[in-house]
Structures are given as structure tokens and as C-alpha cells.
Amino acid sequence: SKKIYVAIDESVHSVAALNFTLNNMARPSDIITVIMITDSEAEREVKIAHAKTLIRALADPNHTDKFFAVRVLCSERAGEAICKLVDETQPDILVLGSSGKSHLESFFLGSVSQYCIQNANCPLVVAR
């Protein structure tokens, strides 16, 4: 079995990344960990509930409880938090949604996807 991490937020690009993972990459024996970032400890439960709602909406109901986990990290720097988790836990692959920003916006503002592409120490897929 593979350890697959899918980093999501509330964007449609994140939903596409989770959907892509479920439909194209994951096998029943794989462990999928949905990762969300919050900058406030008070939002942790809200993020967990959001992730579980997405999983229920997209996953095969026969497998939902068998191979999913949810991790919510508290950080103001999502890319750094994701890459640190990857370093510590060594997943087989990390899946992200595209940032949805234009090239110019990404250049000036940066993006979590771009940061992870440059810094994550595991194979990475950016899904659209």
C-alpha cells in the first residue's frame, strides 16, 4: 500500500486534486491523508469537518472509513508546514491542486503549490 497525501483548502482546485487522487491514483489498500492548514488553532475542528465532508462527497462510501485520515496543521505558512510534514513522515506521493493564480499573481504573491514543487522531498502531482 502507498501513503498518499492530498493537501487541500476550500478552493475548487483542491476538490479537483482530491477527486483526481480518488479516481486516478488511489487503490483500496492505499492510505490517503487529507491535509489542511489553518493559521488559528480555533479553526481546527472546522477544517476537520470540511475535509470529512469532502471525503464523504467524493469517495466510495464502502471505503471512506477504511483508508482515510485527516491532518490539520496550524501554521501561517502552508507550504512550509506541508513540506515539514513530508520530511517527517515520508509519504509516497503528495498531491496538490493548482493555485488558480495567474503567472503574474504567483510571481508576486507566491503559491503553496509552487513552494511545494520546489521544496517537497517526495514525488508530487499538481492536479487541475
From TrEMBL:
UniProt keywords, alphabetically: Hydrolase
Transmembrane segments: none
One Gene Ontology MF term: hydrolase activity
Positions of the UspA domain: 2-128
SUPFAM superfamilies from the UniProt entry: Adenine nucleotide alpha hydrolases-like
Domain of life: Eukaryota
Keyword Ribonucleoprotein: no
InterPro entries xrefs: Rossmann-like_a/b/a_fold, Universal_stress_UspA, UspA
Stated name of the protein: Adenine nucleotide alpha hydrolases-like protein
Organism: Rhizoclosmatium globosum
